[in-house]
Write the structure tokens for this entry.
Amino acid sequence: MKENALNYFGKIDEHCIVEFVDLLNGILTRNLGARKDLRKICSFAIELLDNGMRYSVDDNISFSWVIQNDHITFELQNRAQEDDAFRLREQADMIKSFSEEEKNNEFRKVMLEPHFGKKGGAGLGLLQMLRKGAVSIDVHVDVSALGEYVCICKIVTPIKKF
């Protein structure tokens, strides 16, 4: 697939997420044809956008995707509470170190927990993206000069050729 990119900065809500995913699905379908794996790729964007909306302190996010040849890179940035930012980074670091068996065991464990955290599934979305084929998940936290915490989450997944 030829290079393709989208960059957005602004407010986010459920309606924006629907629009982004429809646009992404349309672009992928036009370039790759109708394929079953497009739903999985779009689910990665949904997860990132949902996290950005849920954890943003001001409903503003920066969201981008870049499609290059055989992979797509999603990046989401949002200002977050300090504890939310570092919890996400710790979850990502822990999950990235898991073997396939450990990923599956952790997924089962989290799914069988009677209670999720107060804001969500304790890294379940990141874990699910790795289980579904994302090749990398990187989370960084930058502290601005104003003492604000900015989460930067980058996901890379292949666009398989059939």
Summary: The two ends are 12 Å apart (CA to CA). The chain has one domain: 4-158. The first strand starts at residue 4 and ends at 11. The CA atoms of residues 54 and 91 lie 16 Å apart.
